[in-house]
Every structure is written in C-alpha cells, then in structure tokens.
C-alpha cells in the first residue's frame, strides 16, 4: 500500500480504468464516453475531480471521482482492484475526495452505496458519513436499492466549533487488529481513520498477535497523517495525545503507546494513557452528547462481555459483571466457524440470522437461573451446544439449517445480554443504558435492547456501528474528557498493560512518574 501513489486521472488512464470497471461492476459499468465526458470537466476550476491509484509499475489499481456544485459535493465513483481490497486503498481514495471537496468550499459530501455492500458502508461510517435516505432500484439492471449517505464536512464543522473552549485531542487505538486514529474536538468527531489487518488474520480463523503488531507498525504514521488531513488540523493544534494503554494484546498495545509517546514528546503535548473499556463507553458522547452520571454500560466484543457502572467516565468506572469464559464476540466467531461462515463471525451470523427463525432451536441461556451470579456471563456452554447440535445433524446426513441455527444462537446471546443489563439498571437505580463494543453493531441486540429498555423506562444509548468497533475516535473522546476535566496526564515512562483493570480509567502521572519525567527533560 505504501508504494501505491495517487495522481490525477488523465485520458490515457481511461483504458486501464475501464478494465477495472468492467471487472468490478459488470452489470452497470460506465462507458468510455462517460469517462471522456467526466474528464472534460476535471480541469482546474471545473466541476469534476478524478484520481487514480497506481502501483510502482504504473498499473492502475484504483480510481475515484468527485462532482461539486456550489457547496455540495457528490462522490461519483470509488473502486479498488479486488485483488488488493482491504489494505487501506479505498480509505486513501476517499480521503482524497474529502480533502478536495473541502478545498472547493463544500459544506457537505454525498454518496450512494448499494444497500447490500456492508463493507463499503462501514468505511464511509468511519469517515463520518451517515444515512439520509434510500433510492429504490437505483442500481440497474439488478434493481438494487441505494443507501444515500452524507458527510457534514469536518473542516467546515471545525471552523464553526473551534470558537468554543473545547480540547482538541488525537487518540490512538492498537489493542487488537485495528490501527485506529481519531481526532475529537470536545464531543465533535473530526476524523476517524482506521487501518485494519482483519484480512491478514482471516486465514487463521482469529487474530494472530505478531501479525497484528507488525501491521500496526506499518500503518501507524500513514493513519495519523490521514486523520490530521481529514480533520483539517495541524499536529501543533492538538491539546493532547491519548492512547489505549490496556487491556489488549501486549505487543499491539506497545506499538500504539510508543507512537503516542513519540508524538507527545516531539510536540510537547500532554499524554494520556487510557483504558480501552472506558473508551468504549465514552465514544457515545460523540453520538449523543455527554454521558449522564451515572450510566450503566454493557460492553460486548470479541474479548469482553462486561457490565459496568460509571459515575465519572474519567475516574470512576465500577465492574458489576463480566464473562467467566468465552466473550460474546468470541462465541460468534466460533459458531461462525462451525457453520463454515468465515471470520469475523459477528457480521455474517447477523446477516444469516435475518433469514432464520430465532425460536427454531432452544439453545441454552448460560448463568440465567436464580442461583447464578446476577451480572456475570457465560457463552462457552452455548457455543458447545451449537457445535454438538450441528455435528449431530451432519452425522445423521441431514441438512443443517444455517439461518435457523444462526438466528437461534443469536437470540440466546442477545436474550442473556439484554436481560442482565436491564436488571443491573433496575437494581442500581440507573435510568440510562449504553451499549458498546463490536457486538453492539448486531441488529438483533439493538432491537431487543430497545424493546426491553422501553418497557422498563430506561433510556438506551447505542453509538452508530462504525463507532462500536475498536477505533481511535473512542480513545480521543476519553482523552478529550480527561483534558476538559483537568485530569493529571500520564508520564513518558507510560507502558502498556495487557490486563489493565477497568477501574483504572487512565494511567496517571504519579510522583514516581514525575521524577522520571523530569529526568528525561
């Protein structure tokens, strides 16, 4: 990816672009004449802007186009060679269009995406695009609907909101396989750049720590640069640098912590080593405004299933319950593997479950009897029950109803999660429930949580899916809150802690740290 360059599209690029166009979009490919027409308006001062991505040998491996009319921009096309998808090129091309629209004075940027193209939708959500409508039958001849998404331009937002006395903080997240860099101004998200190595782990059926660490090393500097460019700020504008200090994979965390210390030292900015779980709670402020105190949080991901109560997101997060074996996201991955659905399992199980019956198979609900711990979770038994049920059908030579299995498994997980979360709210007199973590993107979990919260008179807060997975925005959000509330920064001898307890929302600057910090100076 680092050897690929972006440059303006020229007429001699039309043929290689058409080769990609016909391969990627065989049903509704543009014609050569359309590209000739578009490039005619791509001159300086024109209404079009087209970019190609070229490999070192000159091969065109991607392209993107923008149309601007007044203060409105429209993404005309964006495409990446299917042989190198998932390596960040799509994000680089989109960044180019976002920056160009800003340079042309656009205050909003629109695009259309197939409703079934969830991968592209996740990319756009990370840049801050939000759904604003649907165009029925937009993609022909397949008659597929288009989801219309809009981005209120971050540079324009920054100009109007920087007048408020709110901290501008960059956050770095490297606890697992996502290199996330976010920039937040108060509770306003300016940039959320992510480089994922998930495709590198897919062949192994799970995250390989060494691969994740190396991917973070390669992606760190380009991702930080992309975030700064998208936000339209200089590194010197920042009021602080925040980074996930734990919990997470030790090697992956060290990459992020080392980078944050280097940037904070070079820029002479305060450094905040923050807790990954507390960051997942705080990210909701970017979606729904500042958190009420207290707030109950249900965090569900590949590594965590936790019930937490926060009376102060910067200093007081109390664990009420946690998983005693497999986390919910881990169970999704393992069940997906049993069903042959691939990795990661959460999104594909969710999609399959939409065509199934959640009542078809009575899978067990772990730790659900009166004698069990009130707020702890267990999904290992459920995972095993699914595997045995599927194995029995296969031994009998019967077809496995994958959609029904997915739906019934998902129903069991979401039933336990939401039931215990609502109970925790009632027992502790808390009337706000926040759900975060990667599994919070699950459609059935959101639906069931809303139904049960409405019935119990509890206000439900769930960030959009792009903010639920690991990202730098959540770290920046918590860092911004640390700065706003005057919390003590971390020292420059900050280290990663793979088992950092959630009660330590950040690693403060102790007297011992202070002495080390002064000696470094």
The computed structural class is alpha/beta
What number is the mean pLDDT?
88
Strand order of the largest sheet: 1-2-3-4-5-7-6
Number of helices: 18
Total beta strands: 18
Proportion of residues in β-strands = 15-25%
Describe the structure.
This protein has 521 residues and is of the alpha/beta class. α9 crosses α17 and α11 packs antiparallel against α14. Helix content is 41%, strand content 23%. A hairpin with a 4-residue loop joins β8 and β9. The protein has 18 helices and 18 strands.
In short:
With 521 residues, the chain is α/β, with parallel strands linked by helices. It contains 18 helices and 18 strands.
Give the topology, please:
Elements: E1 5-8, H1 14-24, H2 32-40, E2 48-54, E3 60-69, E4 72-80, H3 89-103, E5 108-114, H4 118-126, E6 130-139, E7 144-152, H5 154-161, E8 168-173, E9 178-185, E10 188-196, H6 198-202, H7 209-231, E11 240-246, H8 250-267, E12 271-275, H9 276-282, H10 285-288, E13 295-300, E14 305-312, E15 316-322, H11 328-338, H12 345-353, H13 380-395, H14 402-428, E16 432-436, H15 443-456, E17 459-461, H16 465-468, H17 472-484, E18 506-507, H18 511-520
Parallel strand pairs: 4-5, 8-11, 11-12, 13-16, 16-17
Antiparallel strand pairs: 1-2, 2-3, 3-4, 5-7, 6-7, 8-9, 9-10, 12-18, 13-14, 14-15
């Amino acid at each position: 990816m680092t050897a690929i360059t972006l440059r303006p599209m020229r007429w001699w690029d039309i043929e290689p672009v058409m080769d990609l166009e016909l391969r990627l979009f065989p049903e509704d490919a543009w014609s050569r004449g359309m590209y000739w027409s578009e490039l005619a308006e791509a001159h300086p001062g024109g209404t079009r802007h087209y970019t190609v991505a070229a490999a070192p040998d000159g091969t065109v491996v991607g392209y993107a186009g923008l149309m601007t009319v007044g203060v409105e921009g429209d993404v005309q096309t964006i495409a990446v060679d299917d042989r190198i998808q998932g390596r960040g090129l799509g994000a680089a091309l989109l960044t180019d269009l976002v920056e160009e629209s800003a340079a042309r004075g656009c205050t909003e940027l629109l695009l259309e995406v197939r409703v079934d193209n969830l991968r592209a939708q996740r990319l756009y959500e990370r840049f801050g695009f939000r759904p604003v409508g649907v165009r029925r039958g937009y993609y022909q001849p397949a008659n597929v609907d288009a989801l219309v998404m809009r981005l209120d331009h971050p540079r324009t937002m920054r100009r109007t909101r920087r007048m408020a006395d709110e901290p501008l903080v960059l956050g770095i997240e490297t606890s697992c396989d996502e290199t996330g860099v976010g920039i937040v101004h108060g509770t306003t998200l300016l940039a959320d750049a992510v480089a994922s190595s998930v495709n590198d782990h897919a062949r192994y059926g799970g995250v390989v720590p060494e691969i994740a660490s190396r991917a973070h090393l390669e992606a760190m500097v380009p991702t930080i640069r992309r975030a700064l460019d998208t936000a339209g700020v200089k590194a010197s504008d920042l009021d602080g640098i925040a980074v996930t200090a734990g919990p997470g994979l030790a090697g992956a965390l060290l990459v992020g912590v080392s980078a944050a210390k280097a940037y904070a030292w070079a820029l002479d900015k305060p450094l905040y080593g923050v807790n990954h779980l507390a960051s997942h709670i705080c990210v909701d402020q970017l979606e729904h405004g500042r958190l009420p105190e207290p707030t109950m949080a249900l965090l569900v991901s590949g590594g965590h299933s936790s019930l937490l109560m926060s009376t102060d997101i910067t200093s007081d997060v109390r664990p009420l319950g946690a998983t005693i074996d497999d986390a919910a996201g881990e169970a999704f991955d393992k069940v997906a593997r049993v069903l042959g659905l691939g990795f990661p399992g959460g999104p594909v199980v969710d999609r399959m479950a939409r065509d199934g019956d959640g009542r078809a198979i009575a899978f067990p609900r772990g730790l659900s009897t009166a004698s069990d711990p009130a707020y702890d979770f267990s999904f290992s038994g459920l995972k095993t029950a699914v595997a045995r049920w599927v194995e029995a059908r296969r031994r009998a030579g019967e077809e496995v109803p994958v959609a029904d299995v997915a739906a019934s498994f998902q129903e069991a997980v979401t039933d336990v999660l939401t039931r215990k979360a609502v109970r925790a709210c009632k027992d502790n007199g808390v009337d706000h429930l926040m759900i975060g973590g990667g599994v919070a993107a699950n459609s059935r979990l959101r639906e069931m949580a809303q139904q049960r919260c409405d019935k119990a008179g509890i206000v439900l807060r769930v960030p959009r899916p792009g903010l639920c997975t690991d990202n730098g925005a959540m770290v920046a959000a918590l860092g911004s809150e640390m700065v706003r509330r005057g919390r003590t920064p971390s020292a420059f001898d900050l280290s990663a802690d793979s088992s950092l307890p959630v009660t330590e929302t950040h690693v403060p600057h102790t007297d011992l740290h202070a002495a080390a910090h002064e000696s470094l100076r």
